[in-house]
Amino acid sequence: MQTEKKNLEGLGGWLILVGISLFVSPIRLWIEITQIYQEMKSNGSWELIMSGEADMHYPGIKALILGEIAINSVQIIACIVLIILFFMKKKLFPIVFIAAAAFNVIFLFVDSVVASSIMPDEFFAEEESGKEIARSFMYLAIWGTYMLVSKRVKATFIH
Question: pTM to 2 decimals?
Fold first, then answer.
């Protein structure tokens, strides 16, 4: 029994994929954010939104954009915290991991609903949003379950 537990300790097995996703997620999020906001700046919509002029046509758009920036920034910080917890093998890691993944699903859903209510005629990304929500939900379902039932997770995150 002790030998089996010893074999399961450490950042191996499926946890390698979790570790890779922890590094890929903030990089992917950062790239997506910068692409979106660079496009907004280059086509002039950023200035319209931040000046408040866009609120005449789309009430709440400025709050939506600023809220997205704030929450995306928090998600990047959460990824960094998760990386630290992961490599320090902290007992808190599985709980924070599941909470962050669940928060992401909720945020994507709420963001999609709010964006479509602010811009009902302009909101063209419903299919894209649906795919992203489904992808995030599957990530939560698969890896959240793994965090809860895996013997390796229980043997690794003990500090």
Answer: 0.85
